[in-house]
């Protein structure tokens, strides 16, 4: 069932223990991971990913004015609401036949670049790296920490830490230098975001047709001054992450198997090129390839397609282990796309959401998350794509396509080169992310600081382009439009943690059908109708256990590292209204390490 490779023969008699983590801490939402662990052979033999709440946006969006879609769908999430607004606006612009002025697109790109920098920094340094900090490694792998104390940090001249253990200490929660500095960087990058999109995290200035951000003389220089304040932090973050992750491979031979699954990556593209994008479906293949993050589907290291039309037509929403009634016998909303291609009944344009609450059974139905898949015509398979946490798929797809070629970012066909200017202390630096051997826990986490650098570098170009337009007097930021009686639209974008699409059907000037598909439903999906596990399940199931603790004091750090490497965030997958005055209370444990002393 799992897509990871089979384990070697010559195993010990199994010592199976049921263990669960529900809810997973350090994320928003109601994600539960249920496992069977074989402590004799030190591996996870079974995993189920569950979500205990239902989300009904696709239900109550029906009948609404489509112009409200961006503001409503922003509330899907309190973390990446702007990504939803942006994606919704893209879908609406396609449906309305409107193209925003170039300056508006640059402003959106700058806002989204700041969001990537903000969110990836706070997640990587204040949430993910808790699993790799001194306090956690001491509690789970004291032998590894002892080795880290003796191991020189190869890139110490960049980040300033002598040993790997010194880096780990810098990430100790609430106390470590980097942990605290990352919080300051997240504040600055959030300010950058607000300069472009008005309010974080639910934008007040993004609309279909353009933006409400007025380009004052200081709008872009205020953004630039903040960006230059964090450039050196970004350079150091890449160096620190590389040092720690390379050390883990060396200290724990075989650690590449933790969280490893077959390379099945999806990226829907980000950062429109205002010079070529017109948001028309008929030209989507062309302007999609002009995005500054190239869309693509990567299977076993091969770029299957970077055509957004093909990506769109291959989308399938499968059931199986999720609590919903099927809709395939209903009348379709859309039979053909604007190019005349047939649209499948399981495509988001045709989906109808009918929840069916029931008891959780792991051999039956056990999650409110559906199972998005991409149909590969070459093999007649429904692929359980994952996002690699967002950055891994973005970098991999962009590298293989080799289309991005700017003064600051260049895709080579096997890598992505990122050039950052001189900062306050560090010189001009060129970073290079190379396609790795594996799609695993460490490479998902490693890609994140590289993509922070990517977003920072592209922001520099967007600033130059935007300021050039302002100097030329091209300050228009909005284009009028009319809502048609009937239309369809689709928006493709990258939320922070990966693929994001919005599919819209308009009839009688109202929303007849609306389905947003963010990254977490892809990553957290349960086993589908063909028995294929979702990415969390597949990555955890079959992975080895390196933690030194036994069943009695087992913390599951390797499992948590794997799940968190995907940057999980459940609000976009589920939600529920209880009614009748009943109150749901959710208690969250503080981040590990507050009292680790």
UniProtKB/TrEMBL annotation:
Coiled coil: none
Binding site for Fe cation: 80, 572
Ligand binding (Mg(2+)): 575
Positions contributing to Ni(2+) binding: 77, 80, 569
Documented EC number(s): 1.12.99.6
UniProt signal peptide: none
UniProt keyword Transmembrane present: no
The keyword Secreted appears for this protein: no
GO molecular function annotations of the record: hydrogenase (acceptor) activity; nickel cation binding
Domain of life: Bacteria
Gene3D superfamilies assigned: Cytochrome-c3 Hydrogenase, chain B
Keywords: Iron, Magnesium, Metal-binding, Nickel, Oxidoreductase
Cofactor: Ni(2+); Fe cation
Pfam families on file: NiFeSe_Hases
Enzymatic class: oxidoreductase
Record InterPro entries: Ni-dep_hyd_lsu, NiFe-Hase_large, NiFe/NiFeSe_hydrgnase_LSU
Alphabetical list of SUPFAM superfamilies matching this protein: HydB/Nqo4-like
Protein name: Periplasmic [NiFeSe] hydrogenase large subunit
Organism field: Streptomyces chartreusis NRRL 3882
